[in-house]
Amino acid sequence: MARPYSPKTVLRQVHNHFLKEFFDQRRELAEIPWMHQRETDIGLVYDAWQALPTFQRSEVDRAFQAIHEMACEAGVKALNEEGVVHGLNLVTALAQQDGFYDKAMWAYLAHPSIFNVASLFVSADGLFGRHWVRHKSLPRKSPNTSAQGVRAFADALSEYYKSEQGRGHQCTVETYLRGGRQHYFFAYPDDYPDTYIGHNDQGEFVKRPQKRAFEVVFIYDPTTGSLDMYAHGDRGVKARLLYIFCQVILNENPPPEQPGDHPYELNALLSSDCRFVTDPSDGIEEVRVRKLRLGIGGRRITLESDPQVGPEDVFDMIAECLSAEHLARTRPNVTQAEFQFRFAPKGYERPKPFTFSVSFPNSSNLKSLKEDHRLLAEKYLRRWKIQRD
Which run of H or of E encompasses 342? Predict the structure, then answer.
């Protein structure tokens, strides 16, 4: 989940020598007496920035927002990964900076091209988890990332959205390799026309038409034959996007769906023998299933545990609400589960719990988690035979 952005937070967290270099590159705020400016005393800098012409002030604001989004563990990891792609080892230089905001600002100033690509990966990882789906068992082959292949992919996506939804008349696709393994395809089809109401650079209140792009993301790993896809729409939309990707980028048809060939299997959660064993080194004090959604034919039942009751509450509800005879006769399927990991105290502090959900057959919000939380969740979903790839 994106952290709330505040420009004053960026000014307070970034050291003055970096702020001076940032504004000096733009030849702005020349009147600031940086030598006498105390750290975190931001009033003078903030007021001078806000007094800039609209265009300059907005450009700084956009840069600060990008730096804010990269000022985190995931941002530093993405910068290190992208540095390797460019033949640079940024680990030592980043480690020498005091905090995450200084690390992000240093990369923004010293390696803008690396910063820009890394920020795309962080942005993709932060997209709303509900719209991510995972496909496995795709052909394991090098994708077509040539200029002609990427253009053909953009044209195919444009044609699909134009014919089916009346939008996407123009589409741009950008592709990047992450960590020497994962191929990212960022697609930006035009959205429906809209009208912008606001102020122009001269401060006049105006209405003007605009066409914004929406985002579709494909992450393909040829070593495992897996594809993570972010797109709004129902299963039909996502199935068509999968077909386009396989046809154009892999020059293959999507593999036919096989029984049991799905990334997530949740029915083991119906068993009274279900146990969530964890490693003591991970410091997990409790694993709780907060919610189960059951599909019984065309019907749904949602069981939601009481947070004030023990971690077995949702399983007690199954025993109370659905008899063994009823379960055997109706054969329900678990279509969604929401988990919560709670941690043991560390010294005088207790780490915050985190929650995530997994849906049958292939969607989850794992990509919305912090990097360390996502890796922990995936580790145990595999161990518990819920994630099957």
Answer: strand 333-343
Q: What type of residue sits at position 121?
A: F
Q: Which of 229, 252, 225 is nearest to 239 (CA)?
A: 229
Q: Is the peptide bond before 139 cis (omega within 30 degrees of 0)?
A: no
Cα gap 23→99, rounded to integer Å: 20
Give the up-direction half-sphere exposure of residue 20: CA atoms within 13 A in the CB hemisphere.
Answer: 12
Give me the phi and psi of 72, to 5 degrees please. Answer: -160, 175
CA gap 47, 12 in Å, rounded: 14
**Cβ of 96: how many Cβ atoms within 10 Å?**
10
Burial of 78 per CB tally in 10 Å (0-12, 13-18, 19+) = buried
Type of residue found at 41: D
DSSP codes of every residue in 44-109: HHHHHHHTS-HHHHHHHHHHHHHHHHHSSHHHHHHHHHHHHHTT---HHHHHTSSSHHHHHHHHHH
d(CA 92, CA 98): 12
Dump pLDDT digits (tens) for 306-319: 888 878 888 888 77
| Per-residue pLDDT tens over the stretch 190-226 | 988 777 777 766 677 777 776 677 899 999 999 989 8
Q: How far is it, in rounded angstroms, from Cα 332 to Cα 299?
A: 10
Mean pLDDT computed over 68-95: 91
* Distance between CA atoms of residues 315 and 272, nearest Å: 7
Dig out the tokens for 331 from the structure: 């054969």
Neighbours of 272 (CB within 10 A): 10
CA dist., res. 179 & res. 81, Å (int): 6
